[in-house]
Amino acid sequence: MIKTVILSMFLPILAGGGLVALCWLLPPLRKWKWLSGVTYGLGLAVGVFASFAAENGIPEFPPTERRQWLGLAAVLAAVFAIFGSATGQPGKERSWPSTELFAVLAGAVVACLPFLVQWGGGELRPYFSGAGPADQIAMGLAVTVGFLALDRVVESRPGATLPLVLFITFAGLAPIADAASWITLTFMFAVAAGISLIAAIAARFGGAPSIGRGGLLAAVVILVFLPAAGYRQTYGEFPWWTWGLAAAAPLILLPLEHPWFGKLPAWGGLVLRLVLVAAIVGTAVMVALQASGGVDAANDYGGFN
Amino acid sequence: MFQRRSRIARGLLAVSLLGSVGVAAGLSSPALNEASATSANPATTTAPAAAPLTFKLDPVHCMALFRIHHVGAGRFWGMFDDVSGTVVYPEDGSTAPTFDVTVKVESVHTGTEKLNRTIIGPQFFDAKEFDSIRFVSTGGKSTGDKTWEMTGDLTMHGVTKPITAMVECTGVAGNPVQKKVGFEAIFTVKRSEFGMNWGVKNKALGDDVRMVVGLEGDWVR
Question: Does B22 share its domain with B87?
Answer without folding.
Answer: no
